[in-house]
Amino acid sequence: HKLPELPYAYNALEPYIDAQTMELHHGKHHAAYVKGLNDAEAALAMARASKDFGAVQLWAKRAAFNGGGHFLHSLFWRVMAPAGKGGGGEPSGALLEHINRDFGSFDAFKAHFTAAAVGVEGSGWGLLHYRKEDDRLIVLQAENQHKLSDWGSTPVLGIDVWEHAYYLKYQNKRADYVDAWWNVVNWGEVQKNIEALRG
Ligand code: MN3
Hints:
Shape: globular
Number of strands: 3
Oligomer: single chain
Helix content: 40-55%
Radius of gyration: 17 Å
Order of helices and strands: HHHHEEEHHH
Strand content: 5-15%
Bound molecules: manganese (III) ion
Number of helices: 7
């Protein structure tokens, strides 16, 4: 696994997300999850080779935590874009219709998603998932990178609400960060994620 490049500069999401936070978040935090996932998979390969599965629970846990972190951060960078240059505003077309059908209105969806993101207990994520089985969009939370996961659906939009995602600029005011984040959501990318899952 490799750290993906950001699709924009570290300062591109200013003033909503500051460059220093982006640089640390991508270059240190996400990079650590990539390393953690590679280390866990290497350890599991060694366990298979040596037939010593004494630490399988430890490495499975680390693979889930770091794998969740790698997956969600890779999504997070892509579903953001500079405000006014692909980021912000409201969804349109098929995505707006889908949101209206499943949540009643964009405002109702936004209120639900905001409450989920702000209300995550401790470190985690606010997430919008697409569930192919019944073609529905659903709002979920994840604790850490992987707990509370739903197995039948896939994240198509997510906001990281770990303190490392906002503390330098917003300190303890997570709700202010979530409010600001809506200005950089890349709705076109969210629609593409749904289309890819629909096949
Ligand atoms: Mn993070």
